[in-house]
Amino acid sequence: MKTEWLWGTGAAGLMLGLLAYCSPAPGPVADEPDAADAGGPCDDSGANCPCDPVKNKAPVDCYTGPRGSNGKGLCVTGKRTCVPDGVGGGTFTKCVGEIVPVAEICDYVDNDCNGAIDDVPGSSALSPDAGGATAIDNCQSPGCDLAHADGGIDCYTGSTRNACRAGRKVCAAGRQLTCESFGDIVPTPELCNGWDDDCNDQVDDSTTDVGQCEIDPDAGVMFPDGGLVKGECTHSTSTCEDGGLVCPPSDPAPEKCDGKDNDCNGKTDEGTCPNQYCCSYKSGNNVYGFCYSSNLGGGFYTCIKS
């Protein structure tokens, strides 16, 4: 039988044949750290490992880089050769021709063999916990869509929080880590939000959302120099301060006979209304039909509600 001619006769010969057929081929796995790195007489490069010049006539694949990096980016397998030692044995050479990972640089290739090109530390190609760019801002301008509203900004191409110049760090032309604007944010009317919405490099200038505002007289708001804000001083115009709208009290004015607390002291028309005018005066829903005689002075009275 051909089986007997190849492997010998009997059950023992057949068993040897099956074992030889099922045994894996010798040699290192190219995508894993080289088996020659296991210690013994081998040096750190895997060279000088013992080998059999007869069994290892052909060079064998080798790779000393981290597991999983071979075949990605620049990383490739090398070859080892078994060199006879003259006494029946031999030693492997270093792994020749292999390329292992190196630090990533901005050169349009995957140097560290992790499957990502130019994910230079400090660029947005990496997550922050992997050494990448950390988001510095959340866009609150109406010109920003949801993609930029949640920590999506790594840098600005200008010196202000110009919405149109918000962007991310990328590996750009000239092999430089550069801030590149998103490119899809357009100017919008300026608002009081700490952003340069209209993209003129001025933050919160000529904001369009300022206007009339009211101070609750019962809120206990104080004037800068002391005293509760009352009367006409509760009617004011908002201003933009530190990226937010505020309603400052208006300035007190001289009191006059008009049914209002012009001087903002909590009293209305004190000592300003003539007798004949007072008794027929109406302001809003309030009718002033009596004169308070105790405030008589210089021919003027204080009107009180009827």
Notes on the protein architecture:
The chain has 306 residues and is mainly beta. It has 4 domains: 25-101, no CATH class; 110-206, no CATH class; 212-246, no CATH class; 273-305, no CATH class. Helix content is 8%, strand content 21%. The protein contains 3 helices and 16 strands. The strands form 6 sheets. Strands 13-16-15-14 form a 4-stranded antiparallel beta sheet. Strands 1-5-4 form a 3-stranded antiparallel beta sheet, with no helix packed on it.
Q: Concise description?
A:
The protein is 8% helix and 21% strand.
Describe the protein's topology.
Elements: H1 2-7, H2 10-22, E1 50-51, E2 60-62, E3 78-80, E4 82-84, E5 90-92, E6 155-156, E7 166-172, E8 176-181, E9 212-214, E10 235-237, E11 239-241, E12 244-246, E13 273-274, H3 275-278, E14 281-283, E15 286-297, E16 300-305
Unreliable runs: 1-40, 292-299
State the distance separating the first and last CA atoms: 132 Å
Helix content: under 10%
Adjacency order of strands in the biggest sheet: 13-16-15-14
Q: Strand content of the residues, in percent? A: 15-25%
Mean pLDDT reading = 76
Outline: rod-shaped
Main sheet: strands, sense, barrel: 4 strands, antiparallel
* Order of helix and strand elements from N to C terminus: HHEEEEEEEEEEEEEHEEE
Number of helices: 3
**Number of folding domains?**
4
How many strands in all? 16
Structural class: mainly beta
The radius of gyration is 43 Å
Tags for this model:
306 residues; 4 domains; three-stranded antiparallel beta sheet; 3 helices; 16 strands; 8% helix
